[in-house]
Design brief:
The complex is a heterodimer of chains A (153) and B (184). With 153 residues, chain A is mainly α. Chain A has seven helices and no strands. Chain B starts with a helix and ends with a helix. Classes of the chains: A mainly alpha (153), B mainly alpha (184).
Chain lengths: 153, 184
Amino acid sequence: MDNLEKIKSLKSIMPDADFASISKSVILSSAKREVIKRPFIYEFGISLGVMATAVTIAVLLGNVRAPSAILAVSNFNAVENEATTVGNDIDVALKEIGSFDQSAKKTALALNEAAGNGPAHLNESILSAEIEKLDINSSSAEDVESLLDQAIF
Amino acid sequence: MLEDERNLIIRAIGGETEAFGQLYDHYMPMIYRFILLKVTQREEAEDLTHQVFLKAWTSIGSKYSEKGLPFSSWLYRIARNTVIDHYRRRKPTSDLEEGEGREEMISRPDIERKLDLNQNAREAFAAIQKLKDIEKDIIIMRFVEDLSTKEVAETIGKSEGAVKLAQHRALEKVRKIMEADKNG
């Protein structure tokens, strides 16, 4: 028998029948084969990820710009003028608010004074002293009296 | 090649245990012999063969493409890698590509007796153990398992020309070893 035939005779080596049976049943029953079909949510997640990545890359490379950004760049001067006008309006409003504030303080002060001692020209003693000093015959006094009458009536 | 193998592979990829069971029945003895002639211990060969088919079953859906390697070549490739990993785990400092050093550690007559081989098979078994691993792989696949040169080339990742050259040199080595054993 030549050498090649001797080598081919090694084909007589066979596995033990019990081993073959047990090994096969163990492999086919306990081994969990890798799942080929993936759940929908997995595929959806992958798609979202790929889409988000593509958009990010496109924006970063400058191929895609947001419409608002384009408008902002083209109308920059108009927007600046509008902002200045609005700023001026705000300044005017603030000044008015300051004036109202001062008027309100003065009004409050006068009200407090009136509520406290009362107007000095309504004080009886002062009025009496003024009457005594008053020269009703003087021309100036007559003029004043006339003006008062016009004002009152 | 197994009859209607393509259909069985497609069904196994789809998860049919019965289809993979038929592939197992057909290819397991070949893979077992291949591994046994490399590791020379029956228990180790059984353990590693089991690992090979477990890997094949768990990864056939993701790793095997019917348009790529023949199924037999894919299995032999898993078997080769499994044996290499086995020796790497057992002897981290050994030269994995050389068979001679490993052969010295084995009590050969005892193993041959355990395998219950006839005289001719014992001579061939002893001669093959003295070859380098790559030569051993080629001789087993070509002349024990009758794989084509193309299938062997695809399994070991070499050209067909390289396989033919290595096969010629390995057969020449086997002839010299057998003559030396006969005369010695």
